[in-house]
Structures are given as C-alpha cells and as structure tokens.
Specification:
Layout: H1 4-16, H2 28-55, H3 62-91, H4 95-120, H5 130-146, H6 148-155, H7 159-165
Helix pairs in contact: 1-4, 2-3, 2-5, 3-4
Bound molecules: fe (ii) ion (FE2) (2 copies).
The site of one fe (ii) ion has 6 residues, from helix 2, helix 3 and helix 4.
C-alpha cells in the first residue's frame, strides 16, 4: 500500500500542475470545485489524519516540530481565506482584483506544499505507530465523504491507479 505521505505528495504534484488557476478568464465553477477539494479533502486529510499522528510522536525535537505543524496549519487558514475572497470578489464583479490575487493564491499554495514536503513528510517514515497502518484507510473515509469521483477529477488519478494506491479490492 502506498503510505499516506506518498499519496499527499502525489496530490501536491497534481496541484502544482493546476496552472489553469492563474490563466484567464477566471472559471468560477472550476475554481470553486478546486477550493472545495483543497479544503474538505486535501487539507482535511492533513489536519485530521496525518498531522495528529506526527504531532503525537515523540521525536527528539517534538516541541519545535509541533511549532512547525502549527505554522503549516496557519498557512491552511490563510490559503482558505484567500480562495474564499477570490470567489467573493468574482461574485462582486471585481475582475481586476481576482486577476491580481489568483497568481498569489497559486504561489502560496505551491510553496506551502513544498514546505510540507521538506519539513514534515520525511518524518512519516520515522514514525512507528499502529495509527500509520490505518491512516490510508482513514484518509479514504474522508475522500469518500468528499466524493471519490470529485477526488479523481481533482487529482487526475484513474480508477485503477486509485484502487492500487488505496488497495481497494472489492
Ligand atoms: Fe497543507
Ligand atoms: Fe498539502
């Protein structure tokens, strides 16, 4: 089974390739769907499954590590607020502001994901805990609540790739 950090890294790759975010004209339906995936699926898996396992592990520098995780969570709030504002500015007809802030949103998001890959995910392999084993299945429960079809659309994963990564057998 792929491990959860590997799955999140694959999602980061899909996000990095979502260059349509910065292109014109603004597609509010696609952007809203992307925001929904980001908030209720990708970030949810990180904050509800991945980070709690990491934060409860006794790394030698656990205190400092937890501070890093808190900063990453603060980024999530900032990124979400910016996405919500972009949707609001679009609804209000402020196309200039939307055009100006879209590249900033994309840049912040891609840099944020890179920070997770540098500062957090390499630790995943060092953790010995029973929760690691159930983490991929727990992530799948969040993906199912979000919508498996929507997840495949957001990540570009085919059904067979998804079934292999998550070891879905039925
Ligand atoms: Fe994140
Ligand atoms: Fe992430």
């Amino acid at each position: 089974m792929a491990d959860l950090a590997e799955i999140l890294i694959l999602e980061h790759l899909a996000i990095k390739n979502a260059k349509w975010i910065t292109s014109e004209p603004f597609d509010s339906g696609t952007f809203t769907a992307f925001h929904s995936y980001l908030k209720t699926c990708h970030i949810e898996v990180e904050e509800k499954i991945c980070f709690p396992i990491m934060e409860s592990y006794s790394f030698p520098d656990a205190g400092k590590f937890r501070e890093r995780v808190e900063r990453i969570k603060a980024d999530h709030k900032l990124i979400d607020t910016l996405a919500v504002n972009i949707i609001r500015w679009d609804e209000a007809g402020d196309a200039d502001l939307v055009a100006k802030r879209k590249p900033l949103f994309f840049k912040l998001l891609v840099e944020h994901n890179t920070t997770e890959e540098v500062d957090l995910f390499p630790r995943w392999d060092e953790i010995e805990s029973v929760e690691i084993r159930s983490s991929v299945n727990d992530a799948m429960s969040i993906i199912e609540s979000f919508g498996v079809k929507e997840y495949m659309k957001a990540t570009g994963l085919s059904e067979s790739a998804l079934r292999y990564l998550f070891r879905i057998r039925n």
